[in-house]
Amino acid sequence: MPTNLLNEQAFKIRDVNLATEGRHHIRLAQAEMPGLMSLREEHKAAQPLKGARIAGSLSMTVQTAVLIETFVALGAEVRWASCNIFSTQDEAAAAIVVGSGTPEAPKGVPVFAWKGQTSEEYWSCLERTLDWSAEAAAEGADFTGPNMLLDDGGDLIFLVHQGVIFEQSGQLLQQQSWTNHEHEIVRNLLEASKASDPKRFQTIAPAIIGASEETTTGVQRLRELAAEDQLLFPVINVNDSATKSKFDNKYGIRHSLVDGLNRATDMLIGGKVAFVAGYGDVGKGSAEALRGQGARVIVSEIDPICALQAALDGYQVAQIEDVVETVDFFVTATGNVNVITPAHIAKMKNLAVLSNVGHFDNEIDVLGLAATPGVTKVNIRPLVDEYVMPSGRSVLVLSEGRVMNLGNATGHPSFVMSASFSNQVLAQIEAYQNAADLGIGVHTLSRILDEKVARLHLAALGVKLTELTTEQAKYVGLPKEGPYKSDLYRY
Ligand code: NAD
Ligand code: ADE
């Protein structure tokens, strides 16, 4: 539990005294986030988010702190929670709560997040981002909730939808990504909410103008909701901006996967065998990072195109069953369920390391492992657990099977998150200002905005872009100022 809850009504974080340390980290991160800082400069006079009340659920890291303060600088009010129980940096949360006294962060923002939450606490924190009664009272206004959502993984957007459905029917939408325990927690939360206000979510949902979603798995869940005609407002799919998925998912994990493995285990990766499940954007970055450390990397894939890519990139492509006994480091990056099962784990080498970097914790069946007769668990240090099997062999499970690059390390570095979060800022502006034109559905930002995000990051790296001549622009049939690629181009 947090040790300093002096103002539990207004925020809930680990320790507000970490704010000074957090502010130093934020200051240094700003220097590595040119996209966010130039969007602040470009839009601060026009205040395009004035009147926006953003409820956010995305890992409360130092980089997210710079995003939150960018929203404030553009006129928004914000409330925030993490999208994962282990992904908060407590010093960043504290700095955001305290604020910096600058125009970007005049008085701080309510945050409900700390590293090491229980699932019950996680859902209660998401719910707190939807309660705007304090702001309404302070402003003499009659709103009850946010008018914009920002999500990473879909849980916050789903909570609002589930709330409406539950109030109307007493039912929940079954979520494959949630355990039975999570369904029970959400049901209890919604029952309590309905008992105190039977129309609470039916009041909150219609006031929501739009939303943005950060990650592959969240987008997939929202597309399913839209396909079932259940989506209630426009959502911008930030993940499929090229400057998000082709950078954060790939180059971000190339940094933070190895960071997490090193902090958790300190084992040499070079010369060992690593197995990466999934060769999408995150799998590609993961495999490259492990190869960069000198590991011999084996990839598994279900998609023949991605499998062929992995093969031509020089990796062995195999089924887990054929190589499981030889692997030292396992990494799951599929967004899929039960990719590594207790039956696989029983055959693993002594002290094989299991880590997942997909969004949800169901890629490795850690619950099944823990429930296997004769298996015992020894905690080695925070978020590093040894499971001893009846054979006498052990495996090391990192972050309890949850995103280990955020649990065992601090996630992707600032520069790459600047590109992701510049897309988030543009998405929030777009959804807030043009929701009616967008209409209910899952949308992407235009290619020209995607190219703009890339442009904002070139100068910091000393990149000198070649400009089309008039003759060349005419020859290839492109506007000199872009966009340069059609929507079909895959990068
Ligand atoms: P993606 O769709 O590009 O790649 C996933 C790949 O896994 C696909 O190529 C798919 O064919 C493959 N796959 C699916 N089931 C499989 C199975 N059973 N065995 C082997 N391969 C399988 O998605 P992505 O953008 O790479 O994201 C992967 C996951 O990582 C998602 O859950 C996403 O939300 C998450 N993510 C995490 C971080 C992080 O910081 N940890 C960052 C971005 C995305
Ligand atoms: N996802 C991956 N890395 C992240 C970071 N540094 N901050 C927020 N979300 C992330």
List keywords for this structure.
single chain; 491 residues; alpha/beta; Rossmann fold; 2 domains; eight-stranded mixed sheet; seven-stranded parallel sheet; 15 strands; 13% strand; globular; disordered N terminus; binds nicotinamide-adenine-dinucleotide; binds adenine
Main CATH class of the largest domain: Alpha Beta
- The number of helical runs is 21
The coarse silhouette is globular
Q: What distance lies between the first and last C-alpha atoms, to the nearest angstrom?
A: 45 Å
Mean pLDDT: 97
CATH fold descriptor of the largest domain: Rossmann fold
Largest sheet: 8 strands, mixed
Give the neighbour order of strands across the main sheet. Answer: 9-8-7-10-11-14-13-12
SSE blueprint:
Elements: H1 19-31, H2 34-43, E1 53-57, H3 62-73, E2 77-81, H4 90-98, E3 111-112, H5 119-129, H6 133-139, E4 148-151, H7 155-169, H8 180-196, H9 200-204, E5 210-213, H10 216-227, E6 235-237, H11 242-245, H12 248-265, E7 273-277, H13 281-292, E8 296-300, H14 304-312, E9 316-317, H15 320-323, E10 329-332, H16 342-346, E11 352-356, H17 366-370, E12 376-381, E13 384-388, E14 394-398, H18 404-407, H19 414-438, E15 442-443, H20 447-455, H21 470-476
Parallel strand pairs: 1-2, 1-4, 2-3, 4-5, 5-6, 6-15, 7-8, 7-10, 8-9, 10-11, 11-14
Antiparallel strand pairs: 12-13, 13-14
Bound molecules: nicotinamide-adenine-dinucleotide and adenine (ADE).
Residues 215-217, 245, 248-249, 253, 277-283, 300-303, 306, 333-336, 339, 357-359, 403, 405, 412 line the site of nicotinamide-adenine-dinucleotide (NAD).
